[in-house]
Amino acid sequence: MSRRIAKRVEEIKPSGIRKFFDLISGREDVISLGVGEPDFPVPWRIREEMIYSLEKGYTAYTSNVGLPELRKGIAEYYKRFGVDAEPSQVIVTSGVSEAFDLAVRAILDPGDVVVIPEPSYVSYRPLSYICGGEVVSIPTIPDFKLTYERISEVSQFKPKVLILNYPNNPTGITYSKKELEEVADAVIEHDMIVISDEIYCELTYSGKHVSIASLNGMEDRVIILNGFSKSFAMTGLRVGYAIAPPDIFEGMLKIHQYSMLCAPTTSQIGAIEALKSLEDIEKMKAEYLRRRNYVIKVLDEYFEVPKPEGAFYVFPKFFLDMSSEDFVEKLLIEKGVAVVHGNAFGECGEGYIRISYAVKFEKLKEAIERIVDFVKKYGKS
Ligand code: PLP
Q1: Please, which residues have CB within 8 angstroms of residue 345's CB and are 6 or more apart in sequence?
Q2: Cβ distance 311 to 200 under 8 Å?
Q3: Superfamily of segment(s) 7-42+279-378
């Protein structure tokens, strides 16, 4: 047997973030601003509902598509973003991660072109590539936004899919309705499908989140991805969803029913409870906002800091004579602070670092002070 691992799998690189997890494992002194995971526990009412369901013995599979009450709740929830979807378009998944995987597997044939604005969340490129997609990236520095022109520049590659993520990981930027209308114009003109990862939609600090699916002419072109990991701090419970046009929904369901069967039952029950009140989110959001304001205020003197309008990340540009990877490694070794090198999110992220402020305020403050000491030592430009 000459080849045991599929060529495309062999070709993809392991996640740059994983590498960094390995580097800090076991080091108690390190303050990690590297992980994109809420530092809050799952709201108690959600945990209670899940515990109660276990006591009652609700541990069987659900239907492949998810619990009817949850699908209804999700369709209802998206009405607040102007999307009028039927519960029958909702597929409940094991996180947005599975929903993304289903989406690309359902729509890509080998050789189809996928456009990814970069810097971008680390999973999009490898998962698109594994299922035969050819990735074309659009570097979006320094403002991190897609525009009509930027999309039109890649239209020569006849792209089939555009991946959008806002509020964005790693930059924290988001889009206004007007900016999204411009993106939508290009999408329609070049006949593309959008995969819109809106997992941070509840953590929008300026204005209100607008789903691109709510814009004229987009209803049949957008696969919305969302979930409970970030807004309800439910990362380990693995529950998310996609809302898709009916034909794409059918394609995704075919894969999901063979590969996953259903999302975890206990977590789906928790998700039903989660959607009953958005109050917990408001409390967490207020704390994230306080931290964001602190971080950008302090770092502004030493970095170029694009103001994040959502999520819980800052993506500052540094002015030291070293690469992003060197910055991250030296900072970790010398100051015991872990951040992620910007180029883990695409080549154009070189010269940047990603800081996650999903960390308790006191720890965050200590870590930011250590970062400031570090840049002072190596020279403020
Ligand atoms: N999408 C983005 C943009 C993310 O940042 C993350 C996690 O960091 C995910 C998806 C994964 O979400 P889930 O936990 O629902 O699989």
Answers
A1: 118, 119, 120, 121, 122, 170, 354
A2: yes
A3: Aspartate Aminotransferase, domain 1 (3.90.1150.10)
- DSSP annotation of 204 reads B
Q: Report domain extents, the chain.
A: 7-42+279-378, 59-274
- How do the pLDDT tens digits run along the chain, 381 residues long? 778 999 999 998 877 666 666 777 777 889 999 989 999 999 999 999 999 999 999 999 999 999 999 999 999 999 999 999 999 999 999 999 999 999 999 999 999 999 999 999 999 999 999 999 999 999 999 999 999 999 999 999 999 999 999 999 999 999 999 999 999 999 999 999 999 999 999 999 988 999 999 999 999 999 999 999 999 999 999 999 999 999 999 999 999 999 999 999 999 999 999 999 999 999 999 999 999 999 999 999 999 999 999 999 999 999 999 999 999 999 998 999 999 999 999 999 999 999 999 999 999 999 999 999 999 999 754
Q: Which two tokens stand for residue 177?
A: 């309705």
Mutate which of 74, 102, 199 for ligand 1 pocket (most atoms within 8 A of beta carbon): 199
Please tell me if the CB atom of residue 119 comes closer than 6 angstroms to any atom of ligand 1.
no
Architecture of domain 59-274: 3-Layer(aba) Sandwich (3.40)
168 CB less than 6 Å from ligand 1? no
Looking at the DSSP bridge assignments, the partners of residue 340 are 354
CA 100 to ligand 1: nearest atom: 10
